[in-house]
Amino acid sequence: MLKKTGFFLLFSVGFFGIKAQQTIPFRVTKYNTIIVQTLVNKKDSLDLMFQIAMKDGAISPERQRKADHIIFNKEEISEHNRVDIGSMSWRDVTFTDNQLAGLEADGKIGTGLFEGKIFKIDYDSNQFVIYNQKPDLKGFQPIKTTFENGGFHISGDNIIDGDRQQATYFVLQSGYSGGILYSNDFAEKYDLNKKLKIIGEKTLKNSSNKLLVIKQGILPSFKLGDFVFREAPVGFFAGDLKNQNVSYFGADMMRRFIWIFDADRKVAYIKPSKYYSEPYYKIN
User: Fold this and answer.
1) What is the pLDDT of residue 165?
2) CA 154, 155, 160 angle in degrees (round to 5)?
3) Tell me, what's the pLDDT at 16?
4) Phi-psi group of 76: left, alpha or beta (phi > 0 → left; psi -120 to 50 → alpha; rest → beta)
5) How is the chain split among helix, strand and coil, in percent rounded to 5?
6) What's 46's domain CATH number?
7) Which residues of 118-144 are buried (b: 16+ CB within 10 A; e: fewer)?
8) What is the pTM of this model?
């Protein structure tokens, strides 16, 4: 079913005039996910996980807080909701019901918060920044992005065997706690099960509550722009359920940078964050 959705921001007085930016505070969990405190429909206080790979919102069946004032139809869709975060408000926010959102989250909220705007994910200051005009980009490196089907796509170079670099596209995926997760096609094309050092195997649940088997290996080298990561743990799917059609650049890799996304979503600017050299996240 196709649904028409939208975020409409009720701007604070002077946002376009006196103020050049607005900020939204967040916290980063030990699972690398971003949590935003929200008030939905002026009644439901919900901790929502920021999901950069979606536009709208969703409510988790495993939520810890009540969402009684979000009314869903038979197709588990709720439209025309109001979301307040601090002094900022959005209306006409659409939520989908029964989507898993990860630990410590009652649901998810997407990039509709920043529609048509330049925005920063600042892991050093634990905040989003929404800009009315292009900010100072000193120290940032530009990388090309494409924005398709609600997701940001970037290109990275993978050294799997010797000095050969294999470039592939990744979708930024802030809901996946790990780092790099390859698509089935990439894993099979380059025979990752044999060419990488395998260090483990985990069973996870996707957003539809289906079980997925992920093998973990060590990638000799990964390069994003001029930034190089050595001996990076990576994942790929094994077993019968192989429906991973895209590769993910997950939350453990995202947190290593501060990100600024241009309004037209064609360029992202990155520079190392305080997490850049932190140990890699281990999926339990």
Assistant:
1) 82
2) 140
3) 37
4) left
5) 5, 50, 45
6) 2.40.70.10
7) bbbbbbeeeebbbbeeeeeeeebeebe
8) 0.89
Q: What is the DSSP letter of 106?
A: S
Residue 242 CB burial class (10 angstroms; 0-12, 13-18, ≥19): middle
Amino acid 3: pLDDT: 46
Is there a domain that residue 205 lies in? yes
Residue 193 placed within a domain? yes
Is there a single domain that holds both residue 14 and residue 63?
yes
User: Domain check: are 103 and 64 in the same one?
Assistant: yes
Q: Could you give the angle at the alpha carbon of 200 between the alpha carbons of 198 and 204, nearest 5°?
A: 130
pLDDT at 162: 75
HSE-up (13 A, CA, CB side) for residue 117 = 23
> By C-alpha distance, which of 80, 85, 5, 73 is closest to 47?
85
Rounded Cα distance, 97 and 119, in Å: 27
Task: Say whether both 124 and 147 belong to one domain.
Answer: no
Across 115-254, where does the E strand assignment appear? 118-122, 127-131, 141-144, 146-148, 151-159, 165-173, 180-181, 197-205, 211-224, 227-238, 247-250
The pLDDT of residue 14: 36
Number of domains in the chain: 2
What's the confidence (pLDDT) of residue 238?
Answer: 72
* CA nearest neighbour of 46 among 65, 20, 19: 65
Query: What is the per-residue pLDDT for 208?
Result: 67
State the Cα–Cα distance between residues 175 and 177, nearest whole angstrom. 6
pLDDT of residue 4: 44
The list of the chain residues with pLDDT below 70 reads 1-20, 163, 204-208, 239-242, 284
Beta bridge partners of 200: 216
Domain of residue 251 covers 141-272
Position 11 scores a pLDDT of 44
Indicate the residue among 131, 157, 175 that finishes a domain.
131
Specify the amino acid at residue 280.
Y
Q: Are residues 43 and 98 in the same domain?
A: yes
